[in-house]
Design brief:
Blueprint (H helix, E strand, L loop, with lengths): L2 E9 L7 E7 L4 H12 L7 E5 L5 E4 L28 E6 L5 E12 L6 E7 L9 H13 L2 H6 L5 H10 L9 H8 L2
Antiparallel strand pairs: 1-2, 1-6, 2-7, 3-4, 3-5, 5-6
Length: 190
């Protein structure tokens, strides 16, 4: 019977928690985990990434395209998940976009058997991923603040509200609490 990693990924330093849980084939590499996190969270794969141990100190795997940069670990497509995730509770850190520095905690909830054959399957999650390039944790907090403001509150700021109005326009209809499991599964499950 096929076996799968049952993984939970959550953004570090964001409350309430933004998280996703999914199954990933036992044959997966760190590149497969990167692609799964991108699709599950809603990132747009516009930046470099790296995997480190749970403390962020020892490199496990890097972006396949990071060769022109200061590579710390082996290319992600050459490192199997089974080389690191050996038992329930195993953890690592995934950093995406070294400018915004989005850090994710990745935890192995267990290895599960499933009679179905698939590469990955989204199980659950909560809350919307931050907008790409919003400025990291502090920019995300500002996006949440601006999204909660009424037009009248922004207008009352006068000239001081120009940047707030710009950010409101930039985030569009993004809502921090929105997470449509069915819609994300349609894109994620393979």
């Amino acid at each position: 019977m096929p076996r799968y990693f049952d993984l939970e990924v959550s953004l570090i330093d964001i409350e309430p928690r933004i998280w996703r849980r999914f199954l990933l084939s036992e044959a997966a590499t760190f590149l497969d985990l990167h692609a799964a996190i991108q699709d599950a969270m809603g990132w747009e794969e516009e930046h470099l990434y790296a995997f480190q141990d749970a403390n962020g100190k020892r490199p496990l795997a890097d972006d396949v395209y990071a060769g022109a940069f200061d590579r710390q670990g082996p290319p992600a497509d050459r490192v199997s998940l089974s080389s690191h995730f050996r038992r329930k509770g195993s953890k690592c850190r995934y950093t995406y976009d070294f400018g915004d520095n989005w850090e994710h905690a990745v935890v192995l909830k267990g290895l599960v058997e499933d009679p179905g054959r698939f590469k990955r399957r989204l199980l659950d999650g909560a809350r919307a991923c931050p907008p790409e390039d919003c400025g990291g944790v502090w920019g995300y907090a500002d996006c949440c603040r601006v999204q909660a403001m009424t037009d009248a509150e922004i207008e009352a700021l006068g000239e001081d509200g120009e940047e707030t109005a710009w950010r409101r326009e930039w985030i569009g209809d993004w809502a921090p609490e929105a997470f449509d499991l069915k819609r994300v599964k349609a894109r994620f499950d393979k």
